[in-house]
Amino acid sequence: MFIKRVAENSINDYLKDKNDHTILFIWGPRRSGKTTLLQEVSNKLSAPIFNFNLLSDQELFVPRREILSKLAVSHPVILIDEVQYFPESTIALKALYDEFKIKIIATGSSELRQKSKEFDSLADRYQEVFCLPLSLGEALIHKSPPLYEAERQEKQLIEDFQVFGSYPEVVLLKETAPDIEIANKLEKIVDAYVLKDIIEIYNLKNTKLAKDILTKIALQVGSEVSLREIASSLQANIATVSNYIEIFVKNYILISLPSFKTNARKAVSENRKLYFYDLGIRNALVKDFRRTELRPDIGGTFENLVISEVTKTIKNYNLKLNLYFYREYGGKEVDLVIEDYKKRYLVYEIKSADGAVKPIFPLPHKAFVITPKNLASRLEEIKNLKF
């Protein structure tokens, strides 16, 4: 079953604009629905998909004029899947843009940007959209409950997202399969895609260390993360731990939330907070799929859900917003600070039950509380943000 994604709107606009010949990249983690989106475009245009997992398809994109000209003549829209497996293709993509002015849609993780020194040469030649695990809004549209069922369905999705996450195949499986089958699916996603793919792409040496690092982070969701403490507990080099974490951030597994700094001397924190794009992945790492009401980490899981949903909203709708947390020397803390490009601020306290915002943020701002009851409406406010 196909689930409608926010990214479809950008893809359709791109295809309709006859004057837009930039390269459209669709970024996101494995299993998030990028290939399904590309297949929809392929079906609509009757155009083939070149899969850079295959050497035979890579060989069609060598930077030689006679080869690229044949591609351009044969395919007014070129569709590429798994572009990260052939970072050298950047040169060919640049040539296709410069000389043949054809549309190119390519899916992948952020690997192309990280692994190809030539990627910067594509400046002003590309645009990007994101296909991440389902947002709450996308899932609600997919469920399309009648009005009298909408509140109950929203509450159930918020619960399910905190326990099983929101990968498309998991959301669909939840409609028919028992919980144990979903848990098994998530463990396979962790081992076969989150870890195996990243280990292979980056030629990392230690799969166990990568999983141990992620598990350490999973056990302290909502708290500041000390690289030194993680490295010490795993008897690992701090630089190695830092490198692995950055890889997980760049590949849409982890979200890095920095602390907000001002000139006010009482703001403190050299650490940052790390959250998971998908809580199903997090719960598979800690092997806990209990309902939220039975969990001792309910505060941390809901905080993670909110940060994930706000991040997905920003990326899905291309919002120019920055996210932080804020903490004083005395320990008082604000969970989420949203900053726009004019340095205006919204401050949020994230509560699994009702609460209030601590009046500690030092700059002019508007303050709100996010709870499970108002999460969907708060996300809608952020999407349509007007200060």
Low-confidence stretches: none
Number of DSSP helices? 16
Would you tell me the structural class of the helices and strands? alpha/beta
Shape: globular
Alpha carbon gap, first and last residue: 39 Å
Biggest sheet strand line-up = 2-3-4-1-5
> If you compute it from the alpha carbons, what radius of gyration comes out, rounded to the nearest whole angstrom?
22 Å
Q: Percent helix among the residues?
A: 40-55%
- Average pLDDT: 91
For the sheet with most strands, the description reads: 5 strands, parallel
Number of strands: 12
Number of domains: 2
Strand coverage percent:
15-25%
Topology:
Layout: H1 7-16, E1 23-27, H2 34-45, E2 49-51, H3 55-58, H4 65-74, E3 77-81, H5 89-100, E4 103-108, H6 111-115, E5 126-130, H7 136-143, H8 150-164, H9 168-173, H10 179-202, H11 207-218, E6 224-225, H12 227-234, H13 238-250, E7 254-257, E8 272-276, H14 279-286, H15 298-316, E9 321-327, E10 333-340, E11 345-350, E12 366-370, H16 375-383
Parallel strand pairs: 1-4, 1-5, 2-3, 3-4, 11-12
Antiparallel strand pairs: 6-8, 7-8, 9-10, 10-11
Helix pairs in contact: 4-5, 7-8, 8-14, 10-14, 11-14, 12-13, 15-16
Account of the 3D structure:
This protein has 387 residues and is of the alpha/beta class. The chain has two domains: 7-130, P-loop containing nucleotide triphosphate hydrolases (Rossmann fold, 3-Layer(aba) Sandwich), CATH 3.40.50; 136-383, no CATH class. Helix content is 45%, strand content 16%. It is built from 16 helices and twelve strands. It has helices at residues 7-16, 34-45, 55-58, 65-74, 89-100, 111-115, 136-143, 150-164, 168-173, 179-202, 207-218, 227-234, 238-250, 279-286, 298-316, 375-383; strands spanning 23-27, 49-51, 77-81, 103-108, 126-130, 224-225, 254-257, 272-276, 321-327, 333-340, 345-350, 366-370. Strands 2-3-4-1-5 form a five-stranded parallel sheet, covered by helices on one side. The chain has a four-stranded mixed sheet with strand order 9-10-11-12, covered by helices on one side. Strand 3 (77-81), helix 5 (89-100) and strand 4 form a beta-alpha-beta unit. The longest helix is centred in the middle third of the chain and has 24 residues, at 179-202. The two termini are 39 Å apart. The model has no long low-confidence stretch (mean pLDDT 91).
